[in-house]
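Field log, afternoon session.

UNIT: design team B
ACTIVITY: writing a sequence onto a fixed backbone
BACKBONE:
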């Protein structure tokens, strides 16, 4: 079994940490709206990878999370005058319906951020105490300067990233590249912490859930869309290496984007087609085949012709 490793940019022979077993984690959705058809590509790609491993005789533990606390969820809850938990559960159920309709093997675990809060706070506290993070007025930031390997996953130099960074006036960050681990929150759902009431930053959550779900800091495979490679996955690697003193995963796998002829499909651009509607129109078998019709690392164009 050979895998293209986004970390080394090489095709490598797969060697599991535990003989005959595969530990695999894929970043899941932030549940503030329905999944669009582009969000369905990693669902199918990594389900297929799992099936290949199992066909080869491996025992696979496959975990993917739900980010069920986020500014977008909070804003949706305020807009609908409903609790964040109601908004999150609605779109978790909808996402699971898409998974089921695409004939995906049930995952071994689907942890939620809200169920991992104590562990997340302890993890952030550890980074503060080790000097890899700092608190400013109730917000906590990861100090990128404290990690001399930062940029190793996305293969970017810190100096180059600094040159392209947006410098904000009156910013609390010691370095423009520093990213939030804990956010002081005045509206919406919040938790008590050593730094005051707030909620975690996105980049910390997956690192902690991996450690909790697999009961170890290092796993075989971490996957997700190519758009997550930087900054999300890069920031995960930095935290893991500073807190756990180990890589987060031995193999990184990133699927290509699903695009329209106008470019990337995203909710923010308003050019999305909901997965549930596309599957209802064309059928799950055709859509699953379509999502596998190009090499998983390449972009795939979605339109009536294709």
């Amino acid at each position: 079994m050979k895998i293209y490793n986004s970390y080394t940019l090489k095709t490598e022979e797969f060697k599991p940490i535990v003989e005959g077993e595969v530990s695999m984690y894929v970043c899941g959705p932030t549940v503030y709206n329905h999944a669009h058809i582009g969000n369905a590509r990693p669902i199918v790609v990594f389900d297929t990878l799992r099936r290949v491993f199992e066909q080869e005789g491996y025992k696979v533990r496959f975990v993917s999370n739900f980010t069920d606390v986020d500014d977008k969820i909070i804003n949706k809850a305020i807009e609908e005058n409903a609790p964040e938990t109601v908004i999150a559960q609605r779109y978790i159920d909808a996402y699971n319906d898409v998974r089921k309709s695409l004939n995906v093997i049930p995952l071994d675990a689907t942890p939620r951020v809200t169920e991992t809060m104590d562990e997340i706070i302890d993890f952030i506290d550890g980074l503060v105490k080790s000097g890899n993070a700092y608190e400013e007025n109730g917000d906590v930031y990861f100090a990128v300067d404290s990690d001399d390997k930062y940029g190793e996953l996305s293969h970017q130099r810190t100096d180059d990233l600094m040159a392209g960074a947006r410098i904000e006036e009156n910013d609390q960050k010691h370095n423009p590249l520093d990213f939030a681990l804990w956010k002081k929150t005045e509206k919406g759902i919040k938790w008590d912490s050593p730094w005051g009431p707030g909620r975690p930053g996105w980049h910390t959550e997956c690192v902690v859930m991996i450690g909790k779900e697999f009961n170890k800091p290092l796993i075989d495979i971490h996957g997700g869309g190519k758009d997550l490679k930087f900054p999300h996955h890069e920031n995960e690697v930095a935290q893991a290496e500073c807190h756990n003193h180990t890589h987060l995963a031995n193999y990184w796998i990133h699927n290509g984007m699903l695009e329209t002829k106008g470019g990337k499909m995203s909710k923010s651009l308003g050019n999305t087609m909901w997965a549930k509607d596309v599957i209802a129109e064309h059928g799950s078998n055709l859509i699953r085949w379509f999502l596998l019709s190009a090499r998983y690392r390449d972009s795939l164009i979605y339109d009536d012709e294709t």
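LOG NOTE: The CA atoms of residues 263 and 301 lie 9 Å apart.
NEXT ACTIVITY: expression trials, pending approval
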